[in-house]
Amino acid sequence: AQSVTQLDSHVSVSEGTPVLLRCNYSSSYSPSLFWYVQHPNKGLQLLLKYTSAATLVKGINGFEAEFKKSETSFHLTKPSAHMSDAAEYFCVVTLPYNTDKLIFGTGTRLQVFP
Amino acid sequence: DAGITQSPRYKITETGRQVTLMCHQTWSHSYMFWYRQDLGHGLRLIYYSAAADITDKGEVPDGYVVSRSKTENFPLTLESATRSQTSVYFCASRDPGLAGGPRLFGPGTRLTVL
Questions:
Q1: Which residues of B touch A105 (CB under 8 A)?
Q2: Residues contacting residue B98 through CB under 8 Å, at least 6 positions apart
């Protein structure tokens, strides 16, 4: 069965320091993986997606993620956090037989301190 | 403006009442989705629709009804609201040419059932 685990429910960083949000997935097939961001009282916005092309995926706002099949991971990183990055982040995997059915992780809340 | 709109943005109702949440998109996307977001569960798919007059159940369809008579509208009805349906509801759509699930989310409707 498909599943996704976000290893940290909360992450706190100082502005200007690196961000690492961890995601592990379980899939019997080659998955499609996404990261979405949700700012307070807003809808979700797609940050980046992996669909079996390059394993290092670049997204918006300086974020990137690396697909590591051997570790079944898809961690999200950013070299230097900005105050505006404070939000909830969701790692998402699709079902192999129906790519419209997304499986969401439970989310990681990123706090950025000045 | 183009995009997805949801109405109402906030709704308080009582147990047993019928409630309809509206979703309207201006892109003419054929695929539309309804999700609910609850603490500790991420987003869960309620129903989705591949085109007008075509709908299908998601993970948590019980207690909900959808219709899709026009491509741009996808209302979600709670026929007899229960407290467990207190949640934030998100509508989403995607272009059929973009594989891998929803791309564009509405701002959400916060529903409280007393």
A1: 42
A2: none
